[in-house]
Amino acid sequence: KNKYIFGLLPSAGEYFKSTLEYLQTVNPKPKKVAILFADDKFDTSVAKGTKKIAEKMGYEITLYEKYAEGQSDFTS
Question: What's the pTM?
Answer without folding.
Answer: 0.81
